[in-house]
Specification:
Number of domains: 1
Number of strands: 5
Largest sheet: 3 strands, antiparallel
Order of helices and strands: EEHEHEEH
Number of helices: 3
Helix content: 25-40%
Strand order of the largest sheet: 2-1-3
Low-confidence stretches: none
Mean pLDDT: 75
Strand content: 5-15%
Radius of gyration: 21 Å
Structural class: alpha+beta
Distance between the termini: 47 Å
Length: 94
């Protein structure tokens, strides 16, 4: 959330196009945007779905190298996931 600088799972986009978390929106004493001070009407709020947030974060983390994409194994329809604890080294060699 740009207001609290904390990760949030429910974000709102205001009519003025500023974004804040649903929690911070509920905490506002007066319904005005904390960035531009425009009045916030209930019908001017769009709620951003969680899957959009996570999809966007995944792309950003992947592009920055913080997430390594899965490796497709040769001659196989299997995908090796480095976080998958079921894959042993022997299984990967065979």
């Amino acid at each position: 959330c740009p207001v609290s600088s904390e990760p949030e799972d429910q974000l709102c986009i205001l009519k003025c196009q500023h974004i804040l978390s649903l929690n911070n929106l509920k905490l506002l004493k007066r319904k005005i945007c904390p960035k531009c001070r425009e009045k916030i009407e209930e019908n001017d709020i769009r709620y951003l779905p969680q899957n959009s947030i996570y999809k966007n974060l995944y792309t950003k983390f992947s592009e920055s190298g913080h997430i390594i994409p899965p490796i497709k194994l040769e001659n196989s329809d299997q995908i090796y996931d480095s976080d998958d604890s079921d894959n042993s080294e022997a299984d990967l060699i065979l």
